[in-house]
Write a structure and sequence with these properties.
Elements: H1 15-20, E1 32-39, E2 50-55, E3 72-74, E4 77-79, E5 82-86, E6 89-94, E7 103-107, E8 110-113, E9 122-127, E10 131-137, E11 144-150, E12 155-157, E13 163-169, E14 172-179, E15 189-196, E16 200-205
Parallel strand pairs: 1-16, 5-11
Antiparallel strand pairs: 1-13, 2-12, 2-14, 3-4, 6-9, 7-8, 7-10, 10-11, 14-15
């Protein structure tokens, strides 16, 4: 089986993050190339939106994105700000700051809290339910992070041009789910249906808060 890793927007130059960032991954050979672009109402590309392509036939095998799923705390920020992981994955939360952090989530699919922990310490948690998880720090109110848990290997984040590309998508009808923390829609997501009859390129215009 052939894997394809879609390019993502450049992020912090940290080795642990370079391995951790998920990318659109293909488990099917000989399928179509699908290119999705998101822009806002002004035509400006929407970066770091999550695109999920779910063929009507469903994925033909269990999957994991390459690398270790990690969301670090660095310079009083979550890095990356949005992380895409496969359903059932465990995410590690290394503290790379000189200060302690206390991470929490009140999201429906994952309610948890990590007590204060310091530099070079790590916590971890599995995410067995699909959906979005909003993260915060009880010590630093401005810190915001998001984890999107998906059940399709044809998923990834848009780059600085608002584009996500993936290969190997099976032909036929497919559901396209778009998610962004500022997307003005129930659950911050929209769902559309497309027909994959060959290589496909689609542009979506979304409204942001």
């Amino acid at each position: 089986m052939k894997k394809f890793v879609a390019p993502l927007a450049p992020l912090a130059p940290l080795a642990i993050l370079a391995m951790a960032l998920p990318a659109a991954t293909s488990l099917a050979a000989g399928g179509a190339d699908v290119r999705i672009q998101l822009v806002d109402a002004r035509g400006v590309p929407v970066r770091d939106a999550v695109v999920e392509i779910s063929p009507a036939s469903g994925p033909n095998a269990s999957f994991r994105f390459p690398g270790r799923a990690a969301m670090a705390q660095k310079d009083l920020q979550f890095t990356p700000g949005t992380l895409v992981v496969a359903k059932g994955s465990a995410v590690v939360f290394p503290n790379l700051d000189r200060v302690r952090h206390s991470i929490y989530s009140f999201s429906r699919i994952a309610r948890f809290e990590f007590d204060l922990y310091g530099r070079d310490q790590t916590r971890s948690r599995a995410f067995p339910i699909t959906g979005s998880v909003a993260l915060g720090c009880k010590i630093h109110d401005d810190m915001r992070g998001y984890i999107r848990v998906v059940d399709t290997p044809f998923a990834g984040k848009t780059d600085h041009n608002g584009i996500m590309t993936v290969s190997g998508v099976p032909g036929g009808m497919a559901k396209v789910t778009l998610w962004h923390p500022r997307l003005r829609a129930p659950g911050n997501e929209t769902v559309s249906t497309v027909s994959v009859t060959g290589n496909l390129s689609r542009k979506f215009t979304v409204t942001l808060k």
